[in-house]
């Protein structure tokens, strides 16, 4: 049994503690399935081996009678902390987030990481807010979308990028998958989008909407080529990615996600991303 040191960071599913010189240990909360730590350790090691900007996995140990992951300690603040300290640089950080994302998408295909479609199917089946008809509709849309073959982070936002002296490092690789690049870009867009009805985002606390808007618009603009799809296809990606996010029950206000599902998943053709890419007024929710 190993003893962690001082608390370094607290997340929705895990806490991170100092763990000797040059290391931290990520300890899952009791509600997290026991296999998650070993899975995330395997995913992170696999993507790092490809050259993706990920921390080194040093060990999997027992902490509080649960598997926990020992990572190298990445010295430096998160990108989100730097945005809070320098909100006038939000647009520049949006471009940098896009640069990190492109490195990930181009890294290659690790054997240890599973397919995105299977992951999304399991999430959609678990959505409590959906009727059976809505779940079937979401699964049908997902089945009809192109598969793609790129490394996807699955949860890339400024809070999950540490700005080390050697360059940005993406953390929290549990949701890594192989799939279509647009799915991961849409996911990141949803995570940083300044929805009007949302006062705070749990993964990016103390948010200021104008700053978030600059960050989001800069990021989407930098990923324009990935998102340049026919309107109906982009709407469907927004709908199913928003639906899978609902299954996580991670947002304090789920109404914007439900609105995106209704716009694209129930026969609508409105895409807030499409409007932003075209230089129009975005519909944030």
Fold blueprint:
Layout: E1 7-10, E2 14-18, E3 23-28, H1 36-49, E4 57-63, E5 66-72, H2 79-85, H3 90-105, H4 116-125, H5 132-144, E6 150-152, E7 161-164, E8 167-170, E9 177-179, H6 181-192, H7 209-222, H8 224-227, H9 231-248, H10 255-265, H11 272-277
Helix pairs in contact: 3-7, 4-5, 4-9, 5-9, 6-9, 9-10
Please characterize this protein's 3D structure.
The chain is 44% helix and 15% strand. A five-stranded antiparallel sheet has the order 1-2-3-5-4, with helices on one face. The chain has a two-stranded antiparallel sheet with strand order 6-9. It has a two-stranded antiparallel sheet with strand order 7-8. The chain is of the alpha+beta class and 285 residues long. A hairpin with a 2-residue loop joins strand 7 and strand 8 (167-170). 45% of the residues are buried. It has helices spanning 36-49, 79-85, 90-105, 116-125, 132-144, 181-192, 209-222, 224-227, 231-248, 255-265, 272-277; strands at 7-10, 14-18, 23-28, 57-63, 66-72, 150-152, 161-164, 167-170, 177-179. Helix 4 (116-125) packs across helix 9. The protein starts with 6 loop residues before the first strand and ends in an 8-residue tail after the last helix.
Keywords for this structure?
single chain, 285 residues, alpha+beta, 5-stranded antiparallel beta sheet, two-stranded antiparallel sheet, 11 helices, 44% helix, globular, disordered C terminus
């Amino acid at each position: 049994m190993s003893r962690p040191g001082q608390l370094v960071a607290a997340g929705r599913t895990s806490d991170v503690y100092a763990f000797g010189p040059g290391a931290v240990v990520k300890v899952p909360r009791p509600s997290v399935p026991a296999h998650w730590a070993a899975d995330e350790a395997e995913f992170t090691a696999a993507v790092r081996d490809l050259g993706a900007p990920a921390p080194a996995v040093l060990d999997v140990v027992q902490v509080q009678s649960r598997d926990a992951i020992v990572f190298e300690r990445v010295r430096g603040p998160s990108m989100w902390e730097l945005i809070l300290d320098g909100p006038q640089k939000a647009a520049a950080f949006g471009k940098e987030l896009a640069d990190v994302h492109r490195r990930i998408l181009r890294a290659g295909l690790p054997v240890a990481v599973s397919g995105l479609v299977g992951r999304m199917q399991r999430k959609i089946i678990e959505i409590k807010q959906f009727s059976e008809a809505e779940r079937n509709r979401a699964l049908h849309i997902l089945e009809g979308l192109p598969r793609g073959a790129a490394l996807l982070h699955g949860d890339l936002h400024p809070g999950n990028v540490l700005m080390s002296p050697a360059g940005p490092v993406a953390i929290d690789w549990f949701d890594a998958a192989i799939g279509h690049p647009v799915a991961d870009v849409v996911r990141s867009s949803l995570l940083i989008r300044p929805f009007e009805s949302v006062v705070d985002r749990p993964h990016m606390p103390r948010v200021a909407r104008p700053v978030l808007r600059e960050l989001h618009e800069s990021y989407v603009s930098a990923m324009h080529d990935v998102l340049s799809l026919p309107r109906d296809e982009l709407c469907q990606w927004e709908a199913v990615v928003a639906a899978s996010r609902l299954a996580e029950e991670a947002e304090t206000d789920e109404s914007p996600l439900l609105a995106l599902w209704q716009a694209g998943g129930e026969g609508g053709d409105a895409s807030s991303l499409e409007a932003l890419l075209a230089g129009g007024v975005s519909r944030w929710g």
